[in-house]
Amino acid sequence: MAEPICCGDYLVERVPVEEERQKLEIEEVYTAQITPQQTARALQFASKMLPRLDGLEHVKRIKRETGDTVLHVILCQCKALDRDQLDGRLRDTEWADLDIAVGRVPTTPPYTREQFDEWRTLWPVAYRPLVKLKAPSFSDDEKAYIQMCLRRVEELQEGAASGRSVAAAIGNPNTRQVVAEARDATAESGNPLRHAVLCCISLVAEREVAREADRAQKRPASPPETGGGGDGGYLCDSMDVFTTREPCVMCSMALVHSRIGRLFFIDPSSGGGGISRYSMHSRKQLNHHFVCFQCTRAGKRAL
Ligand SMILES: [Zn+2]
């Protein structure tokens, strides 16, 4: 796991994505012992006469144990054929007397070095590290901007009437300015949806509506760099979101829909967080992903 990056008062640590949390899942395959000389013919037979391996592109077909003179070859997945069907396909071929066993292979590719080291003990697998797992780096200006935004949401939260409030801000990573900020307004509005993150998105949306109205009336438009409304036609395209508490599932989904670029949160949610519990920033089923960082005040880390 990447080391936390120091941004002034804060230690900023990337939150693992769904793939990095992937636990080892296994599935069964039929394997057979062959000699090295039989390899090419065995693979040819398997490709012509046996079902193709489905979703196991990361699994190597052949395993050689150290010091062993025989190889173990995967014939096919057990889910593709039952044992009688397999025997039927081998009957009356040169492979009729093969010593068949059931082996176990990882269902998904390893995404991290740790997964690779663990999973390959089961069966040889290929390892291609994900580009998105590269350790993040921030320039000094960017670190100052991140610290400024995190301080801003903490100050906003401290100014709240209720000590348990949440504050959020949206920052533009290009101009390094805060473009919207809000506190949780559920109590005073009586509206259970007025979470801080949703209030910030609403502010960007309202400004966008006003700008569109300006355009329609051919009046000079508000300067776009201060208002969000990303280039891709999505409200917060590539924007940064800063919040004192990890967003709930509803807010995390709103961040996915708004196409934000990065999320920085300070306190983890106790139990129902959209990030720590559901990896909403990186779910394969969702059509947008963002990078997420948990930020700890440097002095608070030991608490
Ligand atoms: Zn929420």
CATH evolutionary superfamily of the largest domain: Cytidine Deaminase, domain 2
State the low-pLDDT regions, or none. Answer: none
Task: Provide the residue-averaged pLDDT.
Answer: 89
Helix count? 7
Query: Numbering strands along the chain, what is their spatial order in the largest sheet?
Result: 1-2-11-10-9-7-8
N-to-C SSE string, H for helix and E for strand: EEEHEEHEHHEEHHEHEE
Radius of gyration: 27 Å
Keywords:
Cytidine Deaminase, domain 2; 2 domains; 11 strands; single chain; seven-stranded mixed sheet; elongated; four-stranded antiparallel sheet; alpha+beta; 303 residues; binds zinc ion; Alpha-Beta Plaits; 26% helix
Give an account of the 3D structure.
- The protein is 26% helix and 22% strand.
- The chain is α+β, with helices and mostly antiparallel strands.
- The strands form two sheets. The protein has a seven-stranded mixed β-sheet with strand order 1-2-11-10-9-7-8, sandwiched between helices.
- Helix 7 links the parallel strand 9 and strand 10.
- The model has no long low-confidence stretch (mean pLDDT 89).
- It folds into two domains: 180 residues, Cytidine Deaminase, domain 2, CATH 3.40.140.10; 106 residues, Alpha-Beta Plaits.
- It binds zinc ion.
- The site of zinc ion has 6 residues, from helix 7.
- This is tRNA-specific adenosine deaminase subunit tad3.
Question: What topology emerges from the helices and strands here?
Answer:
Layout: E1 5-7, E2 10-14, E3 26-34, H1 39-49, E4 62-64, E5 71-77, H2 83-90, E6 100-106, H3 113-119, H4 140-158, E7 167-172, E8 177-183, H5 186-189, H6 196-216, E9 240-245, H7 249-258, E10 262-267, E11 291-297
Parallel strand pairs: 9-10, 10-11
Antiparallel strand pairs: 1-2, 2-11, 3-5, 3-6, 4-5, 7-8, 7-9
The structure holds zinc ion.
Zinc ion (ZN) binds next to helix 7.
